[in-house]
Amino acid sequence: MHASSVRWLERGLLIRGRPGTGKSELVVRLLEAGARLVADDLVVLEPAAAGLRARPHARVGLVEMRGAGIFQVAGGGATAIDLVVELRRRTPGTRLPEFARTTICGIELPQVALDPFATSAVARLRLLLHATRIA
Predict the structure, then answer these.
(1) What amino acid positions are annotated as catalytic residues?
(2) By CB atoms within 10 Å of each CB, which of 3, 37, 40, 57 scores lowest?
């Protein structure tokens, strides 16, 4: 799949979006916050006993920084996917939206929309992964 994936805060993220929507930008920000790269740009997805598993398509640890080049970073290997992040330049304006779900390889997963260029993008992901939503 044309996507990126990281392992961060003991959770696997699959980051999807059209070309130029900021997948690699968000990956670089997550790497700075302590994430381990699974794959950037092309991800192999496989059903597994625990759900959906992501692994690199080719060389491990390659990440593109638009306008700067392709860089080698420490790769984190394969990971189970806990959350699908669908990138959009502007997230929907609904104040308290229902959590969306998506199905990939026959496996249903939670999905959120996120603007990767928002200052709060990484903080929002941290809350989504580890805080309890009450409303």
Answers:
(1) 2, 23, 41, 101
(2) 57
Domain presence at residue 19: yes
Confirm whether 48 is domain-assigned.
Answer: yes
Local structure of 10: helix, strand or coil: coil
Model-level pTM?
0.89
Lowest model confidence (mean pLDDT) among 61-65, 82-86, 93-97: 93-97
Overall average pLDDT of the 115-122 stretch: 94
Rg for the chain, CA atoms, rounded: 14
Task: Kindly state the average pLDDT of the residues 11-40.
Answer: 93
Structural domains counted in the chain: 1
